[in-house]
Amino acid sequence: MRYLGSRLLGMLIVMALVAVMVFALTRAASGDPVAVLLGDQASAEDIVRVRQQYGLDRPLVVQFGYWVKELAQGNLGQSIFLQRPVTQALWERAEPTLWLALMAVSVATLIGVPCGVVSAVFRGRWIDQCFTGLAMLGASIPSFWLGLVLMQVFAVSLGWFPVSGYGDPGAPLLERLRHLVLPALVLGLLNSALIIRFTRASMLDVLDEDYVRTARAKGLAEGTVVLKHGLRNALVPIVTVIGLTIALMIGGAVVTETVFGLPGVGNLVVSAVLRRDYPVIQGALLVVAMVYVLINVLVDLLYLWVDPRVKY
Asked: Which region, left, alpha or beta, applies to residue 289 given φ > 0 means left and ψ of -120 to 50 means alpha?
């Protein structure tokens, strides 16, 4: 409980720093959201009136204090362009982003962990060289290029999957998830490279330990030695990188969502940046930072289950 309390306190400090940085960076960006909202034909009087309406004419310290007061009440603010609460706008866009992140992490884990284990067991051989090269290739390929290639092959040429979009709002869940197969493959293939490298490095450290050699000397099957004595003791760094991958996918799938036309949080943030919609930018970045911090805390707590030695 003392450890959990210290992590929660640290989380509050991190979120406070994130709030300050997000507010400062959005205000430092060039452009006036009111001018973008009203267009080129708006008069100076109209711009002044709308700026007063949204409180943008007040000093930055006053604006920040008002925003923090709203955050304390659970309110992320009101979107300037969407004319509805930021919480509602994020909630409407959360489903495709969350499903995309879960599917992509599943693909990355199913590829990265087995390939990393096999690469470590057969290190120096041709299969190790193949998986290492695959990891380097995955880390080098741009996500937008891979997305366009998969779209051309599997959507346009073969017609197996939809080209873009997320389906009709009333469509069944399986139909909407079908639209996420290609984006999930893009993110999963690219992020599996990092998992392969971490799994391989962690397994190489464990397979050289004395207890692994003792298990082999006792005549245990190689599969039991690798999975029970090797992989189980190498899970801590692997779980760490998988947790960080989930957080990065939730906040960093902007390019993939844009390529496939997904109405997710990333697409919403891009639109908000182009429109200088300060409340949406601030709210989205704050929520993504909160998710990132929570996943880090959950990963730390998961260490206790993965490796009981951590609690000592």
From this structure: alpha
User: What 3-state DSSP class applies to 210?
Assistant: helix
DSSP-derived letter for residue 229 is I
Give the separation between CA 215 and CA 66, rounded to whole angstroms: 63
> What is the residue whose two structure tokens read 């080098």?
140
Looking at residue 309, the DSSP 8-state letter turns out to be: G
Residue environment code for 234-266, b if the CB has 16+ CB neighbours within 10 A, otherwise e: bbeebbbbbbbbbbbbbbbbbbbbbbbebbbbb
Separation between Cα atoms, residue 265 and residue 252, nearest integer Å = 10
The residues with which 78 forms a beta bridge, in sequence order, are 85
Amino acid present at 197: R
**What beta strand segments (E) does the chain contain?**
none
Q: Which residues contact 135 (CB under 8 A, 6 or more apart)?
A: 115, 192, 193, 194, 196, 197, 200
CB 186 within 8 A of CB 146: yes
| Cα angle for residues 276, 281, 287 (degrees, 5° grid) | 175
pLDDT exceeds 70 at position 251: no
Measured distance between the N- and C-terminal CA atoms of the chain, rounded to whole angstroms: 14
CA 247 to chain centre: 4
Q: 143-199: per-residue pLDDT in tens?
A: 788 888 888 888 888 888 888 777 777 777 788 888 888 888 888 888 888 888 888
DSSP 269-283: HHHHHHHT-HHHHHH
- For the chain, give percent helix, strand, coil, nearest 5: 80, 0, 20
Tokens 């008002």 belong to which residue?
66
Closest CA to 188 of 130, 143, 136: 143
